[in-house]
Amino acid sequence: MAATTAQPMGSLPSGLGICTTAPDIFYLPELVFGGLVWILVASTHVNPPNPLGWVMFVSVFCFVMTFLWMIIFAAGGHKNSSGWAAADFAYHGLAAFFYLSAGVDLAYITFLKKPAGDFRIYQIDIAAVVFAYVATLLYFIHTILSSIRWKNF
Q1: Residue 8 in domain
Q2: Rounded Cα gap, residues 60 and 98, in angstroms
Q3: Whole-prediction pTM value?
Q4: Residue 78 in domain
Q5: What whole-number distance in Å separates Cα of residue 135 and Cα of residue 33?
Q6: Phi, psi (5° rounding) for residue 114?
Q7: Total domain count for the chain?
Q8: Angle CA(132)–CA(44)–CA(64) in degrees, nearest 5?
Q9: How far is it between the farthest Cα atoms of the chain?
């Protein structure tokens, strides 16, 4: 029988432990879906630039910050302090809010475009909207699980 290594109460995972614990297992899907939003929005004609600029900011910011956050946790740079648990909750809550606002902006702009011209661009915009909402859901679930971990810390 294989021995299981459970995280003791009041400790944050590090190393490969971030690939097996409940809130931290969402890092990779958040990176994948956030990166897809970034790529899909960047591959279309940015019109109007302001709302889609916000979508690009959110997707790039969250991608970079989530990657750095994952590296910090994997390297063990958090040192098991309650401040890191609170910061994890705060960051993922902010990212969920940002992605929700970006998804709404992107859906509205996509709705206004309608498939008047190139239908392929319209399909790419729809895919970006779907992936933005999936990223929102992933960040929201990560926020809930991080808040539970912070409460139990």
Answers
A1: no
A2: 11
A3: 0.83
A4: yes
A5: 6
A6: 50, 160
A7: 1
A8: 50
A9: 61
Task: Assess if residue 61 is contained within a domain.
Answer: yes
* Alpha-carbon separation of residue 69 from 8, 26, 130 (angstroms): 21, 12, 24
Q: Which range of residues forms the domain containing residue 113?
A: 17-151
Q: Residue 4: which pLDDT band, with cuts at 50, 70 and 90?
A: very low
Residue 133 counted as domain residue: yes
Residue 73 identity: F
What HEC string does the chain produce?
CCCCCCCCCCCCCCHHHHHCCCCHHHHHHHHHHHHHHHHHHHCCCCCCHHHHHHHHHHHHHHHHHHHHHHHHHHHCCCCCCHHHHHHHHHHHHHHHHHHHHHHHHHHHHHHHHCCCCCHHHHHHHHHHHHHHHHHHHHHHHHHHHHHHHHHCC
- How would residue 114 be classed by pLDDT, with cut points 50, 70 and 90? confident
Tokens 């995972």 belong to: 13
